[in-house]
Specification:
By secondary structure, the protein is an alpha+beta fold. The chain is built from three helices and ten strands; from the N terminus they run ββααβαβββββββ. This is Acyl dehydratase.
Length: about 150
């Protein structure tokens, strides 16, 4: 092992996982610049996201962030867990539990809830329960992606 150099940021293999395995990601603050860039890129011109001034009639007075941006950042935070080992994303149910605002800091708490070997013998399916949590400990999004992951090479 001493002569072998490991790569940092290499994802989990399917066979490294077990039911109930849990981990969390590092954190990321969502800034005003993130909101502006995402709204411009996606063309989500809903005034809730695009209007910084006339907010008195809006249900959320602070600058809200689209759940699509929060979900995208959550998947980005999870990238190191499946770098080089993730093969496919099949589906997920997604539930928005509460608003995310500009300057909120999020991380993802992940738990393995389903493991099935694949039909080819060198990969398997894994479903996780992912909770996107803000700096107050509140879950703002919860989703359960099913992915195809490589098994450890023989």
């Amino acid at each position: 092992m001493a002569d072998q150099m490991m790569t940092i940021g290499h994802g989990f293999y399917w066979d490294d996982l077990e039911l109930g395995f849990r981990f969390r990601t590092v954190s990321r603050t969502i800034t005003e610049t993130d909101l502006v860039n995402f709204v411009n890129l996606s063309w989500l011109t809903e005034e809730l996201f695009a209007n910084a001034h006339s907010r008195e009639d809006m249900a959320i007075k602070a600058r809200a962030v689209p759940a699509a941006l929060v979900y995208s950042y959550a998947e980005g935070l999870l990238t190191p867990s499946m770098q080089h080992t993730g093969l496919a994303f099949f589906n997920a149910e997604l539930d928005v539990k509460g608003p995310t605002l500009v300057n909120d800091t999020i991380h993802v708490e992940c738990e393995v809830i389903e493991l099935r070997p694949g039909s080819k013998g060198n990969r398997g399916h894994v479903r996780t329960l992912n909770r996107v949590v803000n700096q107050h400990g509140e879950t703002v999004i919860q989703y359960n992606p099913l992915r195809l992951m490589k098994m450890r090479p023989q």
